[in-house]
Structures are given as C-alpha cells and as structure tokens.
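Format notes (please read before filing issues)

Several people have asked whether sequences and structure tokens are stored in separate files. They are not. Every record keeps both together, in the order shown below: the sequence lines, then the token lines. Line labels are part of the format and must not be stripped during preprocessing.
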Amino acid sequence: MVFKFSKFKKIRSLSLSVFAVLLSFYFLISSQKDENSDMRTSIEPGRKLLIKRFWIEKQRMHLYKYKIPFADISEETVQRLIGLPGDTIEIRDKVVLINGIPLDDPEGVCYNFNFQLKRPADSALITSFGMFNGKAICLENEYCFTIPQRYEHVLTDDSVFVFFERKTDSPNRRDTSCFPNDSQWNWNMDFYGPLYIPKKGDTLWDEDPLLNYYLKINCPNVFSIAAWTNTKRRYRIVQMDLYFFMGDNRDNANDSRNWGLISNEFITGKAYLFD
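Then the structure lines:
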C-alpha cells in the first residue's frame, strides 16, 4: 500500500512537471520596462504581461507581441492591433478611421499637449493631471507634456491654464520618419493613408497606386514572384495576411506608421495584462 501511494505521488509530481513545461511553452511572462514606452499608460513600466504564443487569434484593439521590421530579429514590441487584413485605414488629424468609420480610442491613449499655466508646474500638478515626458518651452510657464486623453476635459480649467492645445502635424507634410518615406506619399504621424491592408489571396496589379508601398514592406515572403496575364498585365499574389499596429502613446510611439505593415509571420504572441 505504501509502495502504491509513493508511486502515485511520483506520477502526480511528474504530471505536474510536464504540465508546467507545456504551460511555459504555451505562455511566456514578460514585463514592460521602458518608462516612455509605446504603450504607456495602458501598460505601465514594470507591468507583467502574459504572452500566448500559439493558436493566436487576431482581434482588433487587442494587444500583440511582434518582431520589429528593420531591427535586429530578436527585437520585439507589444502594441495594439488596429488594422486587420482587408481593412482600409486612414489617420486624419489623429483620428483613426477604419473603412471610413472613426475608431474609438482605447482608454489609456495619450497625446502630446502644449499649454501655458498661470503658475510654474510642480510635481503635485503634474501628478494630478497624469502628465509625463515633459519639458518647458518658449513662453513663461509654457510646457509640452504627454497627457492621457482621459484628462483632456480638465485642461479647460481656466483657474490653472492660460491655454492648451493638442500638438498636431500639418496635412500633406511628409514626415521622413514615417514609412515608406517616399515623396509619392506626403504622410505623417497625424495624417496617414488611406491605406488598404492586403489579405492573403489578394491580387496586386502593377498599376496599383500603393504597389511601391507594399513592395517596401520589410517582411519576407509576403508576395509571390511577379507573373503576367495573357494580356501582359503583371501581378503578384499576397501570400500572407498583413496587419497595422499602433502604440497607445500615440505621439511618441514607433509603430506601423514608422515601419509599415506587419505580416502574420512576425506576430509572436497575444499579450494579456498579468497582474
């Protein structure tokens, strides 16, 4: 009887060990380290993330971990999935449009604001308005800070503020930090697109006005080798789905506005807040 009980304990211990190994293979726990990260304040520094690494369903507005194009292959980031295959995305005066319909901002989204105070900024005021990543600028008591959008309604308090404005780029001004940095598209972080996001099986013709954009995407094996129809029209077939990601720290994030669309192969996990 003692022998059987001891054997049962060994089997149970082995089973639990195997389960733990399988669970760690399926999930990965990581943490957000960068104080001015692409996802602050949705994911605060040090916040634990649970990364699901297999059977990853793709859902708009959910968080995913992916490899960064144009970077070392080991460099990854966690951001929000905004555009799905088959969508047309456009950013107009910071407002994200999906197929022409404005997309609600996530709760933690942040923007940069210029403002002037009636007194010098102190730590209590900065904390009360959730401000971070700031600096003094031209006028007396004038500042630029990143502020969560949920505080925007209190910035109208004329007992504190002389004026405030959300920093916004100009339409048709080409930002060289934006993908694909081509004079064909005068896009910037606040005015981007419209951009159709190809899905697997789509046909891209040579006359497509966005073809050069797609061919500059730094994800391998996205398109088939060019072929010709009987009427001498050249085309390529999209081999895998593509996605558009954005950071919630909108004015300071590096995301698909900077490095273009992300292929399915570059997405390494779905992220969940862990603690």
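For reference, the curators noted about this record: The radius of gyration is 23 Å. The first strand starts at residue 27 and ends at 31.
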